[in-house]
């Protein structure tokens, strides 16, 4: 029966299953007669032969497909690239190979706005919750380490100000306590933000810090635009019962994977371990904006990487997406089905124009008013991002993100239009 079913398969399906099973000889034979089969997508999830080879760790097939010039960013219908899938399934050999390719960017994002590192962290958390064996956790951890080695800019120790039981009950921030954290600053897919990832540690000795998990306990997207000073030193406050010396504030926002929606810019309080630590963090963030580009990636792939690998209408990540439930997959490797995530499906019609943003409120005295620029918080809103239509920036900040991404929806900004209010 198996052979009979094999006769009914198309050439494209045979190539897809050969990649899934690691059958390199069959792949080569098919490529000799039907090279287009190497880019075929199955109908349920839009996964390519390369995605299947990466998912199942068939490194020889992955290498051969790369040499055959397949699309290394070929996405599934959820916007996941082959690198996303390799991270989700804990395939460190594949991740190492992909990261070693010239000009392949690790900052590409899927339809949920998650990069490969986000996908690997999520896979680790889910595997931990499911009670997977140590080998599986170790494989995913290695994928995380490889991505951190590529994306990290600086690391060190600092104190994070956190709520405790008393401060939560009383609602008085001066009663908050401090925790020693291992910190890593990493590049992101945005030209405006760096990620500050904080990890718990067993030791309180800043010289002997070793994180206890590969997944951070908290992350903050730190704003690092050229016209904004991200770090402001802070003197110890007499109003705080437990303030630290060598304190500093960072301006940023909490990522979407920690809250329902990315919130407005906030001020986050931290403290260095000593004066040398404060000098180090201050020196780094004073030049952070100039260190955003990855020297191993060309300028056109530094940011706006949601466009990479898009083929026709197979993946349209910027249109309104409908929540759907997928059918059973024969390879049972879709990690995104368990949380009701909104996904992008293939479209045969032109994408609808995004709805315009809500009009500005008249209450200009309220914090977070829509008439105030969400980046600098100084100048009034005076520009509209095109084509997304978000009206949240002053002209100075809008000019700084031109040809970049919108700070609200991360959609690429083609131009900005100045508003004249009557």
UniProtKB/TrEMBL annotation:
<dbReference type="Pfam" id="PF12796">
    <property type="entry name" value="Ank_2"/>
</dbReference>
<dbReference type="InterPro" id="IPR013083">
    <property type="entry name" value="Znf_RING/FYVE/PHD"/>
</dbReference>
<feature type="compositionally biased region" description="Acidic residues">
    <location>
        <begin position="326"/>
        <end position="341"/>
    </location>
</feature>
<protein>
    <submittedName>
        <fullName>Aste57867_20201 protein</fullName>
    </submittedName>
</protein>
<feature type="domain" description="RING-type">
    <location>
        <begin position="373"/>
        <end position="410"/>
    </location>
</feature>
<dbReference type="InterPro" id="IPR002110">
    <property type="entry name" value="Ankyrin_rpt"/>
</dbReference>
<keyword id="KW-0040">ANK repeat</keyword>
<feature type="region of interest" description="Disordered">
    <location>
        <begin position="311"/>
        <end position="369"/>
    </location>
</feature>
<feature type="repeat" description="ANK">
    <location>
        <begin position="45"/>
        <end position="77"/>
    </location>
</feature>
<dbReference type="InterPro" id="IPR001841">
    <property type="entry name" value="Znf_RING"/>
</dbReference>
<dbReference type="InterPro" id="IPR036770">
    <property type="entry name" value="Ankyrin_rpt-contain_sf"/>
</dbReference>
<feature type="repeat" description="ANK">
    <location>
        <begin position="78"/>
        <end position="99"/>
    </location>
</feature>
<dbReference type="Pfam" id="PF13920">
    <property type="entry name" value="zf-C3HC4_3"/>
</dbReference>
<keyword id="KW-0863">Zinc-finger</keyword>
<dbReference type="GO" id="GO:0008270">
    <property type="term" value="F:zinc ion binding"/>
</dbReference>
<keyword id="KW-0677">Repeat</keyword>
<keyword id="KW-0479">Metal-binding</keyword>
<keyword id="KW-0862">Zinc</keyword>
């Amino acid at each position: 029966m198996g052979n009979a079913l094999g006769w009914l398969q198309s050439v494209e399906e045979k190539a897809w299953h050969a990649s899934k099973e690691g059958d390199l000889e069959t792949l080569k034979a098919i490529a000799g007669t039907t090279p287009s089969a190497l880019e075929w997508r199955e109908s349920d999830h839009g996964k390519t032969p390369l995605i299947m080879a990466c998912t199942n760790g068939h490194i020889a097939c992955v290498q051969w497909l790369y040499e055959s010039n397949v699309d290394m960013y070929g996405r599934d219908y959820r916007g996941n690239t082959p690198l996303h899938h390799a991270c989700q399934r804990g395939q460190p050999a594949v991740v190492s190979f992909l990261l070693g390719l010239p000009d392949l960017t690790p900052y590409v994002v899927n339809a949920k706005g998650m990069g490969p590192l986000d996908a690997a962290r999520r896979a680790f958390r889910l595997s931990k919750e499911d009670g997977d064996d140590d080998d599986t956790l170790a494989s995913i951890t290695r994928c995380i380490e490889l991505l951190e080695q590529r994306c990290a800019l600086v690391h060190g120790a600092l104190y994070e100000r956190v709520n405790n039981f008393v401060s939560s009950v009383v609602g008085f921030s001066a009663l908050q306590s401090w925790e020693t954290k291992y910190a890593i600053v990493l590049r992101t897919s945005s030209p405006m933000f760096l990620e500050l990832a904080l990890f718990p540690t067993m030791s309180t000795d800043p010289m002997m810090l070793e994180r206890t998990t590969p997944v951070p306990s908290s992350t903050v997207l730190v704003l690092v635009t050229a016209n904004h000073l991200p770090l402001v030193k802070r003197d110890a406050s007499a109003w705080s019962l437990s303030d630290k010396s060598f304190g500093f504030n960072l301006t940023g926002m909490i990522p979407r994977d920690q809250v329902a929606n990315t919130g407005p810019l906030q001020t986050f309080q931290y403290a260095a371990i000593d004066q040398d630590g404060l000098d180090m963090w201050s020196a780094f963030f004073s030049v952070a904006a100039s260190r955003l580009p990855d020297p191993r990636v060309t300028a056109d792939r530094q940011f706006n990487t949601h466009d990479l690998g898009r083929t026709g209408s197979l993946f349209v990540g910027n249109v309104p997406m409908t929540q759907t439930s997928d059918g059973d997959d024969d390879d049972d490797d879709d990690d995104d089905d368990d949380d009701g995530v909104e996904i992008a499906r293939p479209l045969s019609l032109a994408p609808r124009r995004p709805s315009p943003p809500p009009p500005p409120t008249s209450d200009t005295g309220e914090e977070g008013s829509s008439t105030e620029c969400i980046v600098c918080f100084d100048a009034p809103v005076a520009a509209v991002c095109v084509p997304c239509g978000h009206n949240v920036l002053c002209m100075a900040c809008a000019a700084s993100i031109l040809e970049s991404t919108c700070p609200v929806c991360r959609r690429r900004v083609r131009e900005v239009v100045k508003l004249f209010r009557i």
